[in-house]
Amino acid sequence: MARGDETLTMAQALVRYLVAQRIDIDGEEWPLFAAVFAIFGHGNVTCLGEALYEQRDSLPTWRGQNEQSMALAGVAYAKARLRRQICVATSSAGPGATNMVTAAALAHANRLPLLILSGDTFTSRLPDPVLQQVEHFHNPAISVNDAFRAVTRYWDRITAPEQLLQSLPQMVETLLDPADCGPAFLGLPQDTQARAYDYPAVFFEPQVHRIRRPRPDSDDLTGAARMIAAARQPLIIAGGGLHYSGASADLAAFAERHGVPVVETLAGRALLPHDHPMNAGPIGPTGSQSANALARETDLVLALGTRLQDFVTASWSAFENPGMRLVSVNTARFDAAKHRAQAVIGDAKVALAEIDSRLGDWTAPANWAAKAQKLYGQWNTALDERTAEESSGATNSLPSYAQIIGAVNRTSGPEDRVLTAAGGMPAELNTNWKAKGIASVDIEFGFSCMGYEVAGGWGAAMAKADAGEPGNTYVLVGDGSYLIMNSDIYSSVLTGHKMIVIICDNQGFAVINKLQNNSGNESFNNLLEDCRIDSFVNVDFAGHARAMGAAAEAVSSISELDAALERAKAAAGTYVITVKVDRYVWTEGDAWWEVGIPEVSKREGVRAAARKWDEGRRHQRRGV
Length: 624
Hints:
The chain is α/β, with parallel strands linked by helices.
């Protein structure tokens, strides 16, 4: 052994290295890896588990109930911490590993960091086939962990302990890179985990990281400023990248100084307070009439920190002005260069300052900002009507989604965080929520993953607690997503990370039923009443939540919900409220969205829908 070396197993060295990684957040030093979510099995308990136990005071380990949900909790944690702290999720080999593939895909789609450590088969192959091994006849080197290659930014299988010396620094750089940020995966063969190696002590010295701010090219900035200054109806589309850049205040100042209206993407929600004078609402099929009206007319889009997903661009039909030009600011070249944009590749905070200096005293025509404010005011009038306790939109005496969101919005404060994911809730939250605090909204619609809601709420609540931030975490979840994944209500009770969960019960997958009907199809296999079932059973969601240790109650009206939310706020631990909602009343958008409609069908309704969708393609920008 050389002087200064330490003899450690690969698993021990891995954990020691994670503990040594630190990050500078606003001048304060924090652990880069904040927590480990673990379910142990034969592939990770004997070696990695032993190593985590030794470092349990420096790197807390939390036991999840499901591998997918604990990894989702880790993703939500990272998002709540604005990608500045990262969680680890570990499982055994086999089904524990494959359960996390969905969570890795969600992190990849949303550009969020997560480290996944899974047990793997033996490099020696002497005991093959081992428990949970899936054998490939043509390639014995393949294991189920190869499935992560498609859904991670960094993938490695550690087949010799010394490989950590090269792999771990590259893994950390990927997790922290503002352009390539996403999940990283390490496969840990069981025999390699146990193998010892003389690691240099310097490898475990504390290292303080910072997230870089890539500077854009000067010529790109000049070209962007020239295009903006020539515009008469410019529009800023503000995406989630601005949150991670810490550029919310810069966005507000830029928009005010140059008179450019701002519309937000789903990931960019709560970049501006709802009442900010340049806020024109969320854009897209799930957005506001005000934002979409401006998008139809704009002659210059300044896209900041957005990958321009189809729920932002209305499948690229949102921009009807044939002369519309696009300037795209993004740390990722892949995103910045889309659709013939003038690409500005770099950090949004830096880019805004550079573009601002080049624009000087230029402002957009005052009538354009005035129009945006008028449209936004009209939309807010309609929003207030939809979300009121007594709304004309609800039917059958059941509250609408909009009313539920209005009640939560009235109860919440600027320090609270609201979270949702798949189904009808993202659209309803996006268009009906009035942001009070910056970065206070998490709408997971990059992967639209059912089951993220409760697990994500646990992770977000944990992030708030670890950061010492006040406020509650509100989870909005439909009955469908709740039934898919709910066990982290129990996790939050065990760990003491309070969340307030509102279950909206429409007895099925109602928003997909809506899409089914809108495409000319009959209701089929979405609402429970339209499924092949023997007998219908109402689920006692409140009773189910109480069985997991949460306080819970069922309400039947908005006034009852208002009172229940006050009780939930006063409660010491996780509180679940369930309410039946109208399955047919939705906040209708006015932007097109492309889905596949059969070109040939026996049903006239389907043929009519196909003609309607073809009409929507007239304004679609075709990638040039």
